[in-house]
Amino acid sequence: MISLYVMRLTVGALLVIGMVAMSASSNAASPLVGSMKKIDGTDQNLSDYSGKVVLIVNVASQCGYTRQYAGLQKLYDTFKDKGFVILGFPANDFGAQEPGSNSEIASFCSKNYGVTFDMFSKITVKGSGKADLYKTLTESADPSGDVGWNFEKFLIDRNGAVVGRFKSGVAPEDPALIQAIESAL
């Protein structure tokens, strides 16, 4: 009789612990808050992307990974009608590989890769000047920690949770990234 009582208490305690853990993870700060400047200088409220599957990428025009723009555009074209968006954030944090102005970056992306997904003004993605968006992304992602290089990718689900982090070497056409996007859609 006592062991049955102890078992019920243990199961009850585990259920409570599980519910608290689920509540804590669902209360993680969504990165889709606040306003950021688009590459054309207009303000964009990030909450406008709520309810969509969002891939956030820090980009650079003079990087060995710059050719990923083509794959990112293809991903966007493939999934945009299903509620998928890509947000590109130019950053000059790694090897000074994004030295251009916003207008130069926009022209480069359009001319060389036909980029039509949303591009934003140049920001800082690491260090003391890190943009709030990237503070939230790098703290919420699994694994957490600073961005390692250009073209690192963060996947956000329709509920605003960071559900995937893909290092620079993971190409846009990588099956793992595509599967994660399809699962989030």
Q: How is this structure best described in words?
A:
The protein is globular and about 35 Å long. With 185 residues, the chain is α/β, with parallel strands linked by helices. The chain has two domains: 1-29; 31-184, Glutaredoxin. 37% of the residues lie in helices and 17% in strands. The protein has helices at 2-26, 68-79, 102-113, 132-140, 175-184; strands spanning 35-37, 43-45, 53-59, 84-90, 118-119, 153-156, 162-166. The strands form two sheets. The chain has a five-stranded mixed sheet. Strands 1-2 form a two-stranded antiparallel sheet.
What is the name of the CATH architecture of the largest domain? Answer: 3-Layer(aba) Sandwich
How are the strands of the largest sheet arranged?
5-4-3-6-7
Low-confidence stretches: 3-27
Q: What is the N-to-C order of secondary-structure elements (H for helix, E for strand)?
A: HEEEHEHEHEEH
**What's the domain count?**
2
Largest sheet: 5 strands, mixed
Which CATH class of the largest domain is shown?
A: Alpha Beta
Could you estimate the helical fraction of the residues in percent? 25-40%
Supply the number of helical segments. 5
| Euclidean distance between termini CA atoms | 49 Å
Keyword list:
alpha/beta, single chain, 2 domains, 17% strand, globular, 7 strands, 5 helices, Glutaredoxin, five-stranded mixed beta sheet, 185 residues
Please write out the topology:
Layout: H1 2-26, E1 35-37, E2 43-45, E3 53-59, H2 68-79, E4 84-90, H3 102-113, E5 118-119, H4 132-140, E6 153-156, E7 162-166, H5 175-184
Parallel strand pairs: 3-4, 4-5
Antiparallel strand pairs: 1-2, 3-6, 6-7
